[in-house]
Amino acid sequence: MAPPYRTADTARFPALVFVRSLRQSRDRFAATIALLMCGYGLLMLSIAVLPGTSAWWMRRFHLRSDSFVLWAITQPAPWMYNFENHVLVSERPLSAPELDRPPTPLAWVAVNHQSAHEITFTTRRAKHLRDPGDKYFYLKSRYRDVRVRSAYRVVVLDEVSPMARPAEVISLELP
Amino acid sequence: MDARTRLLMLRGLLWGLLIAWGWKWNYLLPAYNIYDLRPLDVPFFPAWLECAEVYGILYVAPVLVSLVGFLRNRPGAYGAALGAFAVCASLMLLHQGTYNDATYVTAFWVALIGLWAYRASAHPAHDFRQRLGFLSQLLIGLLFLGGIVGKLTPGYFDGTVLYEIYFKERQYFTFRLVRALVEPEQLATAAKLYSWMVLAVEASLASLPMWPTRPALVVAIFALGGLVVFNNTSLASVVVSVMGLAAVSLWLERVPAESTDVHAPARIHRQGT
Q: Whole-prediction pTM value?
């Protein structure tokens, strides 16, 4: 049986043809992929209208999601540069006034949306966590009026070596 | 779909993934060394997703399966390679050393669509290429939707975010050129204009699923290529797999209909009448 539409439709209304084609072919795999993509799309769109959702997504980039499973489920959502994100790295804990006005030479540095990458990722991990000692990472993200702040203490026990023990990353309460 | 078209399609999808994956090679070894020499214990991650060895295995495994696929040159072997990419990319998204890396996000989706294409093309199918074309459009639209939504905040409207990240110090030729051409006090204005241009382009591209397939995919290929050339060449690892998917979908649009679609002759006849 031929599909009940003309080829010209496919050029003008690909979404319509896609849905009709799914119904006719019962292609569950393609339907699942499309539904997944639409689901992620709706979740992302909700950021623009629901403040709670934007806070949730920003916490996700701070590695502060409520659970790893929930965080894992959202990992295939594609992102480009998003939110207004800054990171401050210090060798000592900072007070609330110091976080508002960091003492020289400390400064909030603008980063892309991957705020927690400042701690975990390649060159930045190598730069900040080269020597033994404590390091304090302060992350802040903003989307319109919604703000998310996080703080981590990283305890580096050993010099860089194949026998180095893992540096411990500890989530802190903000001052 | 005839056997030759099917093989070429699967090969094309796999090459896109391999090039994107291979673009990370310069990054892989230093990253592996750092993760090995300075391990981190982040309580958020399960321990096995913090190991450098797991990262290495997840990177190498799909490449090896792909090599076997090219040697065997059978649809099943290519399907296995696409499956390996889908599984490894999804685990890379959860690994402490590679989470949130857009390379693995796009690789995951392209491999998943590739896996579907492998299965769906095994039997005579209604409008296979239209379904592939629309899934490609949907993916590219989703990619740019993820870009635009999070930018609807004052820092992008006034250009400060992109000024601080790109215009102030970024050593890429486009931003060096702007710094050379524009007075320092006008740099913030240039960043604001650039930011508005990015917002406009991303909003347009987020609407790609509503466009007719052919122009949507052509525009997407140029836009993704432009992103790499004008922004950052390392972005190639993110976009090449998607460009490969779009190119394969476009190519299938040009292949004679009887090669891909079981009902093509009937439709050609109906069109003519």
A: 0.93
Verify that A101 and A158 share a domain, yes or no.
yes
Q: What is the per-residue pLDDT across B147-203, written as a single tens digit (0 to 9) for each?
A: 999 999 999 999 999 999 999 989 999 999 999 999 999 999 999 999 999 999 999
CA distance A53 to A50: 5
Asked if A63 and B42 come within 8 Å (Cβ–Cβ), the reply is yes
Assess whether pLDDT exceeds 80 at residue B270.
Answer: no
The structure tokens listed for A56 are: 């949730």
Residues of chain A with Cβ-Cβ distance to B27 below 8 Å are 122
Is residue A78, in this structure, part of any structural domain at all? no
Q: Is residue A93 part of a domain?
A: yes
Shared-domain flag, residues A103 and A151: yes
- Write the secondary structure of A53-88 as one string of H (helix), E (strand) and C (coil): HHHHHHHHHCCCCCCHHHHHHHCCCCCCCCCEEEEE
Other CB atoms within a 10 A radius of the CB of residue A138 amount to 25
Nearest-angstrom CA–CA distance, B52 and B48: 9
B37 touches chain A (CB under 8 A): yes
Mutation pick from A82, A85, A115, A150 vs chain B, by most beta carbons of B within 10 Å, is A82
Q: How confident is the model at residue B261, as a pLDDT?
A: 63
Optimal mutation site among B44, B59, B105, B194, interface A, most CBs of chain A within 10 A: B44
Q: Does the beta-carbon distance from A15 to B209 stay under 8 Å?
A: yes
- Structural domains in chain A (count): 2
Instruction: State the Cα angle at B226 between B116 and B90, rounded to 5°.
Output: 35
Chain A residue closest in CA terms to B93? A75
Beta-ladder partners of A141: A85, A148
Which residues span the domain enclosing A50?
12-73
Say whether both A31 and A97 belong to one domain. no
